Amino acid sequence: METILVERRERVGMITLHRPKSLNALSRQLAREVVDTLKTFDADDNIGAIVITGSARAFAAGADIEEMANLTYAEFYCDDIFAPWDELRSISKPIIAAVSGYALGGGCELALMCDFIIASEDAQFGQPEIKLGILPGIGGSQRLANAVGKSLAMDLVLTGRTIDVHEAKAAGLVARVVPGKELLQTALEAAHTIAGYNSPAVRMAKEAVNVAFETSLTEGMRHERRLFQAAFATEGQKEGMHAFIAKRAPVFRHR
Ligand code: HXC
Asked: Are 232 and 190 contained in the same domain?
């Protein structure tokens, strides 16, 4: 890998975006490397949750503007240049974005693609594409509107202004705000907690919440009920409940 650093910490897989000269601009190579690594983690029984982070200065400052500047419509269309990012939707294990510094354009969109965001006090979020004569391209207009509602999403997408972490937290974009030096530890602890649970149930829970953004309440409830019933086909359900009754800690086998 040339654009990211990959680590395994017990049952947590960690991806650090690493293009410091361009504030982790999301090049095509970086997209491929992130997605390939996520797929590897997703297929690995020894990994139960994933953290994506950047540097202290930038989670990611957007798509790589230099790489994009001279592309034509035909190149974008025929090569479907952002298609790798769509593959994130197929990752069944939880992904936490640990965001410090700039999360702009595609960087904000990548954070939004993750399952939740833990951010440091200096994090900044925005969709400044409009200033470049374009608009969000990997789901920002959709996921941002889902996360913060129409009015603030329109404000950010149409004016290109950046919001600080407190506005982002108040709007529901960010789950937790922590001091910068605690960011990684907090994200890893959350990921370790998740990775310690019954893995099929964790993945079902992620699937169930995601369905809420894609279908009607009736369909979503039906989907949740089927997943709930399916959880009773897992060893982890038996272990979790019998451990509770026996007043001992559960030991999940993650399968
Ligand atoms: C390529 C980038 C970059 C980017 C920063 N750099 N952002 N290179 N693509 N998105 C480079 C700069 O050119 C500079 O390189 C170095 O990183 C440091 O950036 P500075 O501008 O010198 O830093 P600073 O003054 O602190 O300003 C930080 C910043 C600014 C506010 C984040 O860099 C900025 O506005 N960046 C662009 C943000 C943006 O518009 N993002 C949306 C991109 S479009 P040198 O060589 O000069 O040191 C997009 C579309 C989404 O994301 C589609 C889906 C992927």
From this structure: no
